[in-house]
Specification:
This protein has 272 residues and is α/β, with parallel strands linked by helices. It is 34% helix and 24% strand. The protein has helices at residues 2-28, 64-72, 90-102, 118-130, 189-198, 220-226, 246-254, 262-265, and strands at residues 33-36, 45-48, 54-57, 79-84, 104-110, 133-134, 140-143, 146-152, 171-176, 179-183, 206-208, 230-233, 258-261, 268-271.
């Protein structure tokens, strides 16, 4: 009788292991997701690769990002493979400080540019202690059916001080399972022109509209070159900046781009 129970236990353990490996396999072959979180007046973009890697680009203001991640990740999932900070303005970096405290973050990419605000100084101390990968054009993260390449800034800005942090924004080109996304941070039109002159960019499916839809960004040249089907504007309702500006909306209309706004549509999700 004891031997029969032992055999049963071994068989049960075998099927449990098969199920577990099956679950892991389904993650590796899973769907791709790009989620533009509604964090108010700020940016936070969550990427899940077909292999199940988790990437977060910016964290928005405050701790609202934790609510969103709590819905994306199960109770037992506490790892984020990569965090990318485009630039250390409050509406992009504050939430990332909360993420670093709450989750096991494997890697960080940022420019290392100097900022003088309290939150920028706090971020700088944090990454100095944990280490980070410098964001500069040509750096690329990739796996099967996934590639994310930094296309701006052109060279390392580690330790540099700039007059306007927006000009040092990370711009990234994401290709995943045949779909293309262009993530602009808060870069201005001159930075967009730098990228256009340095890269032969393909048409993309989704453009993250620059600087919350400000007239400072998302030039007609950029939009006509990229020819996106969708433009996502990450913006807070009734914000004090008047974002998105009418000039930007008109540029998108002229190029027949379907506009999705977090202040009107909430969190925007692409799954394929």
């Amino acid at each position: 009788m004891r031997e029969r129970w032992l055999i049963f236990a071994l068989v049960a353990l075998f099927f449990l292991n098969v199920f577990s490996w099956g679950f892991l396999f389904s993650l590796k072959e899973g769907k791709a997701e790009v989620v533009f979180f509604d964090v108010g007046q700020g940016d936070a973009v969550f990427i899940k690769t077909p292999q199940g890697h988790r990437i977060l680009v910016d964290g928005g203001p405050g701790d609202k990002i934790l609510e969103h991640l709590g819905r994306e990740l199960s109770f037992l999932e506490d790892k984020i493979d990569l965090v990318i900070l485009t630039h250390p303005h409050y509406d992009h970096v504050a939430g990332l400080m909360e993420v670093l405290e709450t989750y096991q973050v494997e890697n960080v990419i940022c420019t290392g540019v100097k900022g003088e605000s309290d939150i920028a100084l706090e971020w700088r101390e944090e990454i100095k202690e944990r280490g980070y990968i410098k964001a500069e054009a040509g750096k690329r993260v990739f796996s099967e059916n996934f590639s994310l390449e930094i296309v701006h800034p052109e060279e390392s800005l580690k330790g540099e001080k700039v007059d306007d942090l927006n000009t040092a924004s990370v711009i990234a080109y994401l290709e995943m399972k045949g779909k293309d996304f262009f993530l602009t941070g808060d870069a201005y039109t001159p930075q967009e022109k730098e990228v256009l002159s340095s890269y032969n960019l393909p048409e993309v499916d989704v453009l993250k509209v620059g600087h919350h839809g400000s007239r400072t960004s998302t030039s007609g040249e950029l939009v006509s070159t990229l020819s996106p089907a969708y433009g996502v504007i990450m913006v807070g309702e009734d914000n004090r900046y008047g974002h998105p500006h009418e000039e930007t909306l008109e540029t998108l209309r002229e190029n027949e781009v379907k506009v999705l706004r977090t202040d009107k549509h909430g969190t925007v999700r692409f799954v394929y």
